[in-house]
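Quick one, T. Sequence first:
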Amino acid sequence: MSEGKQCISEQIDRIFAPWDRIDSPGAAVAVVRGGEVVFSRGYGCAQLEYDVPITPSTVFHVASVSKQFTAAAVALLAQEGVLSLEDDIRTHLPDIPDFGPTITIRHLIHHTSGLRDQWELLRLAGWRMDDVITEEHIRKKVRHQRELNFAPGDEHLYSNTGYTLMACIVAQVSGLSFREFTAANLFRPLQMHSTHFHDDHCEIVPGRAYSYTQDADENLQISPLNYANVGATSLFTTVEDLARWLVNLDTGSIGGRQLTRKLHERFTLNSGETIPYAFGLQHAEYRGLRVVGHSGADAGFRSFCGRFVDCDLGVVVLSNMAQFDPHEMAMRVAELYLEADMCERTTKIPDAEVPLLDRERLQACAGTYLLDSMGSAEVWVSDGGLQLQLGEGPSAKLQPVGGLRFAILPAGRQVEFCLDGERAERFTLEAGARTLTAERYRRHYPTPDRLEKLAGQYWSPELQAGYEVRTDETEDSLILRHVRHSDVHLLPISDSAFQSRGSRPGRIDFIEQDGEIVGLTVTGSRVRDLHFDREVR
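Structure tokens:
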């Protein structure tokens, strides 16, 4: 190993040092340059119960990194003339409801179909994400849908449903299972011998990593995953195999240059706006350099696989820890190779030397904030600093960066509070390529009679599931109750609008006609205006 490579290897080791312990989940890393793997290493433990270390050959569930392979399978079939990307999806899947406007395969690829997201629908219907979830369960939910979130092609809104249906289409037109088709046409030709789409949750997979998270007290727990569905997720692979895939995206050894160009094509909305999402690949920028890749998150698995397309550099980071940020870690690795080509940082790196703010300034940031339909966020003062909790996720310490700007540790995503007078009225949060804005919650006080009027039983024909709305006398508000979920406390926004405390289900709007409450709608991050009828008492 040359001195330069050795130096970079040591710096990568330092980046991942906090996880390089046999009593901690960790990550595997691979770096590709010049068509070769120039670095690969594992850090931490794949199976805490058995002290199995993570290596470059450890098999991870990579969640939504799976999508680019689903899109590639569809693109291969289109290239062979077996299907067209402009096909109405009902041509291949006639059990999908007719929503009026045509939904094409291309709409599914770019998340522009308007179809509601499968995971959000299942959660709303009472499923837990550690339940066994099969393709048939998802298909049934799609068959019951009555409305789209929007007209196909009007917007880009991430929908896992579309990629599950794409896998179904591949199986339908090829005569093979999706797992068989991708193995024969993608994985075996690329010698990705440790890779498969995991369609059987009972299957034994040698060398696999288990999935972990932390509870509120930072104790490690198993985070079970029992998916038996493919397309949107469920790719099992290694950093070594994904490195081979990144090389293929440069060389076009599968499908030729025609296929690799296709996989990078973005979509133009009906409005004429071009979105950054291609074929399971997201176009983005980091410090002035173009990056094409995708992240993934299921249970405790976290993944990133991407390329700096103009700099001949690819980075793969796979982790089995829910609190791990693989995108941030991949960018830190890339900086070691490309710092000279990058623009100056627009945000500061967390610095332990930055002094803590005085308690008055910290208290000005504390409170409850709403992230539109994504739920609530809590900020409070703890141990002389700030803690942030997004939705039902674990709380995180905020490290001062300067002014009212903080970094969420350990990953370093930036949060900035905006002071208006004596307190912060909003904060912005970096979320991958997006910036989210959270507004301080302003409490509304419905009368007890109004709350009693809203209470009752509500049923969704689309979900085939119901909720009970009960008054919460201790907080002068409402509680949303489902037989399989913990009670959700609702924050009043007005006499008819409420927001869930946490991240699910989102915003609740009650429907009133002629003075009577006849129903409600639920709007989450990927499901809009889902209707529930009020049951007659």
